[in-house]
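The records we work with from here on pair a chain with its fold. A complete example follows; check for yourself that the lines match position by position.
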Amino acid sequence: MNIRRLMLWFYHLSWKKLLGFSTLALVIAIIPLALQSANSPTRTRSEAALITKPQPVSSEFVTPKGPPEVYLVDHFFGKASDAVLVHGANLGGLSGNTSVSLSGQIIPQDNLVSWTADYIEFKLPENAQSGKVSVNILGQTAQWPGTFWVTDKDTVAELKLEKVNDLQARLSARNINAESGLLIWLLIFQGDGSIEIQPAGGVTLASQVKSLPLGRVYEVEAKFSASRDWTTLATITKKDGQSVGIARAEAGANQPIKVHPLYVSF
């Protein structure tokens, strides 16, 4: 009798009630899976931005074939706990005779994410200060020529590459004192060929091209009047298949510069 009553009750349920019960059961089933996923290490590529690559978290040491080199620090800015990727060559690997430093302070081993022969990834320590990124490999040192800027919510000097169309973007700045010059690296990190840089009115631009193993770099020197509002510095035109990003920026030793992640490349 009880089974018959249960079947009659189930038969008379509306489709809305059945859908509600099904949704509740699905939610209950998903919650443990979501918690398990959130607690599992699933990152398989760098969180640093311009040039991402698989991250074999390994302490395997590869004997250097020459002195260490540092090509790029990506991004060139960040806040505490952000991922920073150092690209180079002959970086060996994690060992008791290797280290990576920011502003003269060795990055603690707990902050190291990955170390291979051609790149190092670390999380920016809480007490980090802006300065040069350098590596020491078996007693030989190499330093990136640019400055890594430690930023926070109070950092106001900012750049952006704002997309105009598929092949063009506006390079803009705000709150940057550039009367003595603003140095910017525009890196072609995907695709071949050149880009066109057309300066905006009232902006003086000079550029030279450098070649890195990671791509072609346009080193731009810009001079313009500082403003709290966004000031367009130039229009960048690329070719189909190219990707271009801001890879370095300096306008003085005491002026940290940041780029919004959505506008760092196009």
